[in-house]
Amino acid sequence: MIRQVLTEKITETDFRLRGKEPGRLENFSDAIFALAITLLLISTSPPTNFEQVKRFAYELLPFLVCITLIMLIWYEHLQFYLRYGLRNSRILVLNTLFLAIVLFYVYPLKFLTKIIILFPVGYLVGDQTLLNDLKNMIRAQDMGQLMIIYGIGATFVFLVLMQMYRYALSKADELGLSELEKFDTQTSIRTNLLMAVVPLASVVLSVIFINSWLAGPLAGFVYFLYTPIMFAHGNRSDKKRKTLIESMKQREQEG
Question: Structural domain of residue 109, as residue ranges?
Answer without folding.
Answer: 2-254
